[in-house]
Amino acid sequence: MAAQVTIYLNEADQWQRRPLHLEMLHYLRAQNVYAATAFHGVGGFLGHQRVETAHLVEAGGKLPVIVMFVDSDENVDRLLPSLKEMAPNHLIVRENVVLVQESID
After folding, report:
1. How many Å is the Cα radius of gyration of the chain?
2. The domain containing residue 46 runs over which residues?
3. Is residue 53 part of a domain?
């Protein structure tokens, strides 16, 4: 069994003055995560916030970015505390997944 984690950010989020989504990808690569991707959305919202889209001039750094990664349950357990520290007050979703094409081992 594997786990997939999805972290909801926006493009203005930073970690140590660098884009948070890129810092997360670098961290996940350094931790030998099996697969990770950052998606830059053209629109979205979280909770009761307004919808931000690429068509609004005033969007300015609020467009959604999603970081998603897949790894073993054990590695996800080990990595989540650091990711929570990097992205406090952000939505993080963990799901159990079945790998159909590849194997983490």
Report:
1. 14
2. 2-97
3. yes
